[in-house]
Design goal:
This protein is α/β, with parallel strands linked by helices. The chain has 16 helices and eight strands. The chain has a single domain, classed as Metal-dependent hydrolases (TIM Barrel), CATH 3.20.20.140. It starts with a helix and ends in a 13-residue tail after the last helix. Bound molecules: 6-chloro-9H-purine (ES4) and zinc ion.
Length: about 325
């Protein structure tokens, strides 16, 4: 019981959360109605009942369909504010939040629709909730390097504190190794942006090596498949490159099916800078506290280890230190 209380109370930074993945079915259906769109599901219960995934792609299909209800600036404000309120209730005091511009651009929206809504939510989170927030633009890995480059161009008016502090890679991993995005990541580096990438979520350790050596990422998102390569684990340890691990996401997407608890236990014991994150909480069934709680139970953690994970989240954040997003 005291471990549960500690998990609830310890201040946390959240470093791997997709704002679109915080779209709870209640808000999804309300936005569909507000925008005169057909509801993606007949009811909240039907939406939750549909959230059973065989793998990453089967999740992404529903996630992108859900994004279709986001049409107006206020929709993005309401979505981000709902996440910040929920995160603050879990004692998240700092969040670096992914979003997928290509998805919204593909739905016919411009940057002038989604970005002011997201930015105003970050400002209100700081003022009303004491939660500092910034955004990381994700490029979708199955889309072209040219599309990623155009997306970075669209972000240029929005670089800086409380707005866009970095770039990442997300979406379909298998068959889309990171090196395709070498040039756009170089350009992001020259712009003073932080670089991260989803790698080793479903894909092999080679994709993590590529993210490190070709994209020069400061953090690896997921990275759980690094466990299969001892030299990679040693390299991540030596450079103190953090992994943003998302336990409930791995569970629901059947990463390491049957062996997940053992793998998470190994990761936490590895000495790497492991952090705990919620990824797409509305789809995977829990925000920060639920992810810490699941991991603590799965890996048999005590208060000292949970405190270490929370401390890691600040070490791994771009909030502190030279070259942090604060100066971008
Ligand atoms: C994602 Cl769990 C996950 N993996 C890759 N891309 C994503 N985008 C949103 N959630
Ligand atoms: Zn993710």
């Amino acid at each position: 019981a005291s471990l549960k209380r500690f998990i609830e109370m310890v201040p946390k930074a959240e470093l791997h959360v997709h704002v679109e993945g915080a779209l709870e079915p209640e808000l999804m259906l309300a936005l569909a109605a507000r925008n005169g769109l057909p509801p993606p599901y007949p009811s909240v219960e039907a939406a939750r009942a549909a959230y059973h995934f065989a793998d990453l792609q089967s999740f992404l299909d529903l996630y992108y369909a859900g994004c279709g209800v986001l049409r107006a600036e206020k929709d993005f404000y309401d979505l981000a504010m709902a996440y910040f309120r929920r995160a603050a209730a879990d004692r998240v005091v700092h969040a670096e939040v992914f979003f997928d511009p290509q998805t919204h651009l593909g739905n016919g929206l411009g940057w002038e629709v989604f970005m002011p809504g997201l930015a105003r939510a970050a400002e209100d989170a700081a003022a009303q909730l004491g939660l500092s927030a910034a955004y990381i633009v994700c490029f979708r890995k199955e889309m072209s390097a040219a599309s990623a480059n155009d997306t970075l161009s669209g972000a240029l008016p929005w670089l800086g504190r409380g707005h866009v502090i970095g770039v990442g890679l997300d979406s379909s991993e298998l068959g889309n190794p990171p090196a395709k995005f070498a040039d756009v990541f170089d350009r992001a580096a020259r712009l003073g942006l932080q670089r991260v990438a989803h790698a080793g979520e479903e894909g092999p350790p080679e994709y993590v090596w590529e993210a490190l050596r070709v994209l020069h990422v400061r953090r690896v998102d997921h990275g759980v498949h690094s466990l299969e390569d001892g030299a990679l684990m040693a390299a991540l340890n030596a450079s103190r490159t953090p992994l943003t691990v998302c336990p409930l996401s791995n569970l629901k997407l059947k990463v390491y099916e049957g062996q997940l608890e053992a793998r998470l236990t190994q990761l936490v014991g590895s000495g790497l800078v492991v952090t705990v994150n919620s990824d797409d909480a509305a789809y995977f069934g829990g925000y920060a506290v639920a992810n810490y709680g699941y991991l603590a139970a799965a890996a048999g953690l005590g208060v000292a280890q949970v405190a270490r994970l929370a401390a890691n989240s600040f070490e791994a954040s771009f909030f502190l230190g030279p070259g942090s997003g604060g100066e971008a």
